[in-house]
Amino acid sequence: MERREEELIQQLLAYDEELKALYLEHQGLKQKLETFRNKLYLTPQEELEKKRIQKLKLASKDRLMEVLHRHRSAAAH
Question: What crossing angle do the helices spanning 17-37 and 3-12 adopt, rounded to 10°?
Answer without folding.
Answer: 130
